[in-house]
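Summary for the steering committee. One of the milestones for this cycle was to obtain a three-dimensional model of the protein with iron/sulfur cluster bound, which we needed before selecting residues for the alanine scan. The sequence and ligand used are listed below.
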Amino acid sequence: MSRYDHDLDGLADLLPGEPAFRARQLHDGLYRQLAQPDELSTLPVPLRRHLAALPELAPALELADARRADDGATDKWLFRLHDGAVVETVLMRYPRRATVCVSSQAGCAMACSFCATGQGGFGRHLQRGEIVEQVVRAARAAREEGRRLDHVVFMGMGEPLANYDRVLAAVRSIVVDIGIGARNLTLSTVGVVPGIERLAGEPLQVSLAVSLHAANDELRSRLVPLNRRYPLDTVRAACARYVERTHRRLSFEWALIAGVNDRTDDADELAAIARPLHAHVNLIPLNPTPGYLAVGSSAAAVRRFRDELDRRGVNVTVRATRGRDIAAACGQLAGSAGAGR
Ligand code: SF4
């Protein structure tokens, strides 16, 4: 248990004999003021000291490495957890918003062939508090620059829907406790169909991004091994039910790999899936990883692929890659730091 594993009732349990408003002050201090227990000037000094020493309120994350890129617009942090596992968090600053990309697992069991995290294997699920604290750290860093953190994407290490209950508990806390609008949260999945089905039933306006990367089973099973368990037809059907039931925005992520999934046939196949679902397609030129020899599509090939989708009536954007020079593709900083999971 760490400090962001507790809701208001849990914090009240840590304050026996104190009036109820103390728990509310502590809750407000941790989640809204983004403060440490010993910084809470609304609390009496002895209580502050007591809380700062409580193991239940210890931080979950210890900074192990920090790198800055894109002329200061991107920060990538490597955090060590209590058991030595490491996770990555990336803060991305844009002209009108700030987004944090959080990890939901230490490592990942999905083994996508082009992904540094997948190449490193699975460590463990993250707890709610370990996820929420990544958001708090980013929000605090943004606030120190006079900015507000307003978007959270679950696109760091791990498959969020494989850690469903803890991720959803973190999502609720980010929305209710920290106060970031659910519509500004995006959960990303490589196609965990039972998770998509469950998410469709949640009373939460979060966005769903499905990392497709290929729109035929033969290629997709090579890039995303989970496709053998949940082939494209089942993913597509789950997406259709999700859209029908929630009327929420659905997007497809497509990491463009030169000569692998950036051909005209790929655009045809992708358009055939995306258009009926009114899905938005995000193209991301692949960041190179040491364990995968293919390279990202050239700028010209990215433009051509985007235009092909556009001509086929697909809503498409090219996402600028962030932090290439600091190994910002998921899992690369952990790999380069030689950190075990
Ligand atoms: S791309 Fe995502 S789901 Fe696939 S191995 Fe990497 S972290 Fe896991």
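Key point for the committee: The pocket of iron/sulfur cluster is lined by residues 108, 110-112, 115, 117-118, 157-159, 190, 330 (CB under 6 Å).
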